[in-house]
């Protein structure tokens, strides 16, 4: 994991001082609301329904145990005792006081954390694969590149006030677990035919009002050119992205309007001017950053621990948890464990201060003191010995983190929605909870298999509803809350956007509507077929017929 | 666009001295890290006065270039966010001052305009930020190559001056410091 040196620390400390000064001047009336808003947003501070909401950056989802304990301490001292992990690997606090925020930032800085650029029209936290560095299918570790991008993007003066927010994701595996195709820039670390390392560069993906899958504008970018090429993309976007309409201001609209080929040509022309300038990366810097991400001191272990195998064979509940929540590790004898923050009937992604402290203890005891956050809003212990899995499972059960539902119907991605967010048209958490309660039978859930339900409370699509196998979008119809359902979306290498099934539904009908969709799948599936595979074969019509046959109230 | 008004701001002794060395009346402005009195008049239309140093809109410059060049006193040009700096490329070497307008500080196009003027077209005159300029915009402006800052009349210019130094260290290369930290970190480590 990256560890700050004096330079990194000085930059974060000075940011705290700057924000303290800005807050003081705002409270004294020297900064207006309109002036303070963009400044506080670039420190992750929103003004929400109940209180300000503070979003703290977790760069590419990596945390040390001391940082997790600080997050717990902040939840305890400045919030109502919990935090909410987001779909971009950050954490949000829903109840801090504005006056306390400078102190919260100062406390975060003591453990090398910050809230820099977690909101606002700037380059946001760079996200990545939660299994980076440990995944069995990894080609190259994306984390050094994430950190290099983090440093480049932090207070980048030219791109401080872009037309709109800007999100970059990096993946280095065969399977894309970082949603790279729906990011403003998606980078795939690859090796070319000559064996050189570089990036495949996609731009203009995104969800929101105009969901688009990203377009590849460069098949291979040498690693040393990463930052100069990003500068070129951002400069073209900063100059030519629309600023007259915030719904047309993302880079995807520019890329679409210009066509990806014309956009790529413009970027290449811009890049040619400065590609060999001082921003060109040096091997020394690449090596310096990569040295922070070397493998921990693994023991030499057999590929499969005998006691672990025996326990799995005789303990059905444990075996079920292993099947869903344990991910195959590249190091023999180790495994990556996902702690589910989706217990049935609780807000997805929430963790209490006590749970966070307990996770930090688990990390210290079983996983080299590190914790990760996934964009599916779960926590990961990435380096657990197989022989410790039973103990970790028991501990996770005691914490309420052992729901064996990773990738299943109840592992719902969900934004905070109308209960907390002032942008939302409709609530989202109660919909997730009602669906989780309807599908509370674990045997049935396992039988249904892989199924992504994603819920967003508004068009901004923080819950990634477009790429859910079943997507749910909250809409406002003359003051009441309705829900639009889409089918067939997916994330990963075969990323696709869901199709809207038809008119929207009332909140109370949602569990039944989901039930009807699931019934069509169960009645029509072939042996071994997943929901998304069956949907691909059947098309949307049988689902549509079932859902609208018995007309529940719809508008 | 902010109209320049010729009101005199009360200044302490040190500033009064600096103002004298810079001549005529005008608003206080930050140039090269010091508060001085502005000697330029900002023009918003094609009515360019005979007398005095003026900063004219890019469109006016492009239409009246020869006449403006024949003027006895200096002429600078200001650029709006949606205007392309490329239009000025041929004139950059001969202009003493170029201003970039920020009608609102959240419109960051002027940052790219400034960097292109300095980094690509090698502009060496005074690069001035005008419009919505105040303390919290200063550091980024400086990094993009601005050397002069027409701080909004209703904002505290002394506070704004401090904003130039919000950070003592930066990660990425930009106009004021082209070497990214990674090229300097190695040499000082």
Kindly report the average pLDDT value of chain B: 88
Morphology call of chain A: globular
Going by CATH, the homologous superfamily of the largest domain in chain A would be Sulfite Reductase Hemoprotein, domain 1
Query: What low-confidence regions of chain A span 5 or more consecutive residues with pLDDT below 50?
Result: none
Tally of structural domains of chain B: 1
Assembly type of the shown chains? heterodimer
Order of helices and strands of chain B: HEEEEHEEHEHEHH
**Most extensive contact:** A-B, 42 and 38 residues
CATH class of the largest domain in chain A: Alpha Beta
Output the strand order for the largest sheet of chain B.
2-1-8-7-6-5-4-3
Indicate the CATH architecture of the largest domain in chain A: 2-Layer Sandwich
Q: For the CA atoms, what is the radius of gyration of chain A?
A: 23 Å
CATH class of chain B: Alpha Beta
- State the separation between the terminal residues of chain A, measured CA to CA: 51 Å
Outline of chain B, from the CA principal axes?
globular
Keywords:
heterodimer, A: 555 residues, alpha+beta, Alpha-Beta Plaits, Sulfite Reductase Hemoprotein, domain 1, Sulfite Reductase Hemoprotein, domain 2, 4 domains, 6-stranded mixed sheet, 5-stranded antiparallel sheet, 18 helices, B: 189 residues, alpha/beta, TIM Barrel, 8-stranded mixed sheet, 6 helices, 8 strands, 19% strand, disordered N terminus
How would you describe what is shown here?
Chain A is an alpha+beta fold and 555 residues long. Chain A has 4 domains: 6-109, 2-Layer Sandwich (Alpha-Beta Plaits); 142-290, 2-Layer Sandwich (Sulfite Reductase Hemoprotein, domain 1); 306-399, Sulfite Reductase Hemoprotein, domain 2; 413-549, Sulfite Reductase Hemoprotein, domain 1. In chain A, 37% of the residues lie in helices and 17% in strands. Chain A has 18 helices and 21 strands. Chain A has helices at 6-27, 33-41, 65-78, 101-109, 143-153, 226-240, 251-258, 260-274, 283-290, 306-314, 316-325, 353-366, 389-399, 429-438, 442-448, 510-524, 531-538, 541-549; strands at residues 45-47, 52-56, 62-64, 82-85, 91-93, 127-128, 168-171, 185-191, 197-203, 215-222, 326-328, 334-339, 350-352, 370-373, 379-385, 413-414, 453-456, 470-477, 480-487, 499-500, 505-506. In chain A, the strands form 4 sheets. In chain A, strands 16, 17, 18, 19, 20 and 21 form a 6-stranded mixed sheet that branches. Chain A has a 5-stranded antiparallel sheet with strand order 1-2-5-4-13. A 5-stranded antiparallel sheet of chain A has the order 3-14-15-12-11. In chain A, helix 1 packs antiparallel against helix 4 (101-109). Chain A is globular and about 60 Å long. By secondary structure, chain B is an alpha/beta fold. Chain B has one domain: TIM Barrel (Alpha-Beta Barrel). Chain B contains 6 helices and 8 strands, in the order αββββαββαβαβαα. Chain B has helices at 13-22, 58-69, 109-120, 135-143, 157-163, 181-188; strands at residues 28-31, 34-37, 40-42, 53-57, 75-79, 97-102, 126-131, 148-149. In chain B, strand 4, helix 2 and strand 5 form a beta-alpha-beta unit. In chain B, helix 4 crosses helix 5 (157-163). The radius of gyration of chain B is 17 Å and the shape is globular. The interface between A and B is large, with 42 and 38 residues.
């Amino acid at each position: 994991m990256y560890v700050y040196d004096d330079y990194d620390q000085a930059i974060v400390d000075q940011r705290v001082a700057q924000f303290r000064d800005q807050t003081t001047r705002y409270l004294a009336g020297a900064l207006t609301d309109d002036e303070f808003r963009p400044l506080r947003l670039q420190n992750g501070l929103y003004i929400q329904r109940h209180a300000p909401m503070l979003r703290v950056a977790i760069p590419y989802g990596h945390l040390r145990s001391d940082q997790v304990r600080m997050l717990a301490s902040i939840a305890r001292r400045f919030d109502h005792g919990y935090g909410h992990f987001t779909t971009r690997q950050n954490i949000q606090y829903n109840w801090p006081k504005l006056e306390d925020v400078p102190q919260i930032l100062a406390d975060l800085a003591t453990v090398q954390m910050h809230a820099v650029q977690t909101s606002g029209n700037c380059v946001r936290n760079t996200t990545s694969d939660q299994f980076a560095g440990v995944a069995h299918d990894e080609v190259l570790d994306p984390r050094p590149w994430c950190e290099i991008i983090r440093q480049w993007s932090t207070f980048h003066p030219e791109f401080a006030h872009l037309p709109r927010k800007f999100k970059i994701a990096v993946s280095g595996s065969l399977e894309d677990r970082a949603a790279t195709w729906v990011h403003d820039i998606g980078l795939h670390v690859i090796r070319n035919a000559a064996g050189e390392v570089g990036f495949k560069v996609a731009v203009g993906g995104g969800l929101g009002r105009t969901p688009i899958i990203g377009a590849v504008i460069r098949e291979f970018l040498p690693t040393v050119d990463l930052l100069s090429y990003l500068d070129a993309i951002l400069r073209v976007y900063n100059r030519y992205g629309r600023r007259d309409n915030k719904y047309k201001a993302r880079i995807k609209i520019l890329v679409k309007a210009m066509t990806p080929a014309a956009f790529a040509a413009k970027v290449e022309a811009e890049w040619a001017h400065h590609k060999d300038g001082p921003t060109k990366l040096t091997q020394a810097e690449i090596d310096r950053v990569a040295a922070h991400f070397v493998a921990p001191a693994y023991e030499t272990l057999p590929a499969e621990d005998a006691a672990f195998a025996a326990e799995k064979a005789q303990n059905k509940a444990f075996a079920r948890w292993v099947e869903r929540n344990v991910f195959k590790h590249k190091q023999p004898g180790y495994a990556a464990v996902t702690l589910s923050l989706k217990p049935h009937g609780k807000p997805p992604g929430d963790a209490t201060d006590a749970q966070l402290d307990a996770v930090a203890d688990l990390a210290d005891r079983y996983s080299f003191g590190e914790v990760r956050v996934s964009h599916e809003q779960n926590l990961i212990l990435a380096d657990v010995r197989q022989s410790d899995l039973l103990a970790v499972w028991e501990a996770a059960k005691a914490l309420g983190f052992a729901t064996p539902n990773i990738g299943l119907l109840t592992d719902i991605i969900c934004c905070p929605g109308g209960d907390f967010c002032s942008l939302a048209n409709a609530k989202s958490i109660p919909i997730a909870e009602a669906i989780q309660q309807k599908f509370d039978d674990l045997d049935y859930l396992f039988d249904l298999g892989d199924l992504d339900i994603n819920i967003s409370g508004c068009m901004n699509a923080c819950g990634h509803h477009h790429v859910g196998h079943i997507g749910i979008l909250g809409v406002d119809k003359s003051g009441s809350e309705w829900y639009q359902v889409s089918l067939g979306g997916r994330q990963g290498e075969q990323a696709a956007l869901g199709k809207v099934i038809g008119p929207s539904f009332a909140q109370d009908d949602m569990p039944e509507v989901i039930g009807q969709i699931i019934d069509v799948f169960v009645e029509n599936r072939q042996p071994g077929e997943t929901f998304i595979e069956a949907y691909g074969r059947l098309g949307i019509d049988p689902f549509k017929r079932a859902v609208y046959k018995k007309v529940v109230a719809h508008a | 666009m902010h109209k320049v008004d010729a009101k005199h701001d009360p200044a302490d002794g040190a500033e009064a001295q600096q103002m004298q060395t810079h001549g005529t009346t005008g608003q206080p402005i930050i140039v090269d890290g010091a508060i001085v009195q502005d000697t330029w008049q900002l023009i918003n239309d094609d009515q360019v006065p005979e007398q005095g140093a003026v900063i004219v809109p890019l469109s006016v410059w492009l239409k009246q270039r020869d006449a403006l060049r024949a003027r006895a006193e200096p002429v600078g040009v200001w650029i709006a966010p949606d205007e392309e700096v490329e239009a000025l490329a041929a004139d950059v070497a001969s202009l003493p001052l170029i201003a970039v307008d920020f009608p609102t500080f959240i419109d960051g196009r002027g940052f790219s305009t400034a960097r292109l003027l300095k980094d690509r077209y090698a502009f060496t005159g005074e690069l001035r930020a005008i419009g919505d300029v105040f303390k919290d915009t200063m550091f980024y402006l400086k990094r993009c190559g601005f050397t002069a800052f027409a701080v909004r009349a209703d904002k505290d210019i002394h506070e704004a001056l401090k904003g130039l130094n919000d950070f003592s260290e930066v990660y990425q290369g930009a106009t004021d410091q082209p070497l990214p930290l990674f090229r300097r970190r190695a040499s000082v480590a």
